Amino acid sequence: MGPPLPRPPGGWIADDLDTLADLPPHTELIDGDLVSPSPQTRFHTQAISLLQGLLESLAPPGLDVLSRFTIDIDRHNRPEPDVIVVHERAIQGWDQTRLPAQDVVLAAEVVSAESRHRDRDLKPVKYAGAGIPHYWRIEHEEGQVLVHVFERDQATGVYRGTGVFRGRVKLSAPFPIDLDLTSATRGRRSADL
Q: Could you tell me the pTM of the whole model?
């Protein structure tokens, strides 16, 4: 890919992600700016795969689980959460490139050094403002996987923390969830996750 594209007056719009040539895969649109992905760590890649698989095994009928798929928040914001749980009614076909934020039940981000600010500060505000009821932030700290769980407060429209989980995530919402992250990674070297 060549040099970065100059930002047009008023910024890029959601439709541009589908029409601009030579964008790297997984480019996001945040506040009218194109955000190119950085190289991913092994933890980031494996955490996404593990989380997607575990949530797929638990999601009730009518919900689907996707990884690294963009969502439309508004004209200038089309982020790509690492994992989403979405209503199946929003899935239109194989050529679909994005989903409406109002059909997302859970957005999860796996934090990397490069994405720390976006995943901790910027994206949760965008997701809550779009009405996504649940947000998870997954981090790797001192050899442990931490899952920070947030739920959108209907009165204020912002996320409030409902817990930080290490090794096991047990929740009743958005559907019954019991994820044993330690058993799912048994047999892998401890450095894997």
A: 0.91
